[in-house]
Design a protein that fits this description.
The chain is an all-alpha fold. It has one domain. It is built from nine helices and no strands. It has helices spanning about 5-15, 20-30, 40-50, 55-80, 80-90, 95-105, 110-115, 120-130, 135-190. Helix 3 (about 40-50) packs across helix 9. It is globular and about 50 Å long. About 30% of the residues are buried.
Length: about 190
């Protein structure tokens, strides 16, 4: 079934859309607060479609992701009880917040770097940092470094791989897509308890 190759072609068309930088900025902002889709899903095809703008796109993603992180921090800091906690309860995310608190306890400020650079859900840590009243300036600086490293790495890989990588990706996109779906289902079944 060629579902993922059709999706890939659609994403590449969106990547060159004249409003793509605006959408990337908005996605980067909300992903740091609540949005479940990683910024890389939009950043990578944009950098691949227009490699001459890859560093600009990485900079936009970094800037707006850190601005979103600051907003998430402020939500956790000032609006935990009236806004964030009811949302967390409704979504059943208390266990994720408990894990974030434990990570802050174990690793301190370095957990922000881990969350900002790796696939760990960054949004959980931005809000929790505010809830725990973490020092704001170190939070912003470490977020800037971690998010910048991640997004510039993604853009750099797209520039480096270029047309050759795109050809390989197109060749195997459906297989890779279905493997990701199977892996996600297996991970869900293993981790749901």
């Amino acid at each position: 079934m060629k579902l993922f190759s059709r999706l890939y072609r659609q994403v590449m068309m969106w990547a060159v859309h004249r409003h793509a930088p605006l959408y990337l900025s908005m996605t980067s902002f909300v992903e740091s607060i609540f949005w479940p889709v990683p910024v890389d899903v939009m950043l990578a095809p944009m950098a691949l479609a227009r490699p001459q703008k890859a560093w600009y796109y990485a900079g936009l993603a970094t800037l707006f992701s850190v601005l979103g992180a600051a907003f998430g921090y402020l939500l956790g800091y000032a609006l935990w009880d009236p806004v964030v906690e009811p949302f967390i309860s409704a979504m059943g995310y208390h266990d994720k917040i408990d894990v974030a608190r434990q990570w802050f306890s174990d690793w301190g400020i370095w957990v922000i770097f881990i969350a900002s650079f790796t696939p760990v859900p960054y949004k959980v840590f931005t809000v929790t940092a505010g809830l725990l009243h973490m020092a704001f300036l170190p939070f912003i600086l470490i977020s800037l470094v971690g998010r910048g490293m991640r997004f510039f790495l993604v853009s750099g890989l797209m520039v480096w791989g270029g047309v050759r990588m795109e050809r390989k990706l197109i060749q195997y996109i459906d297989l890779l897509g279905w493997l990701c779906v199977v892996a996600a289902v297996i991970a869900y079944l293993l981790l749901r308890n």
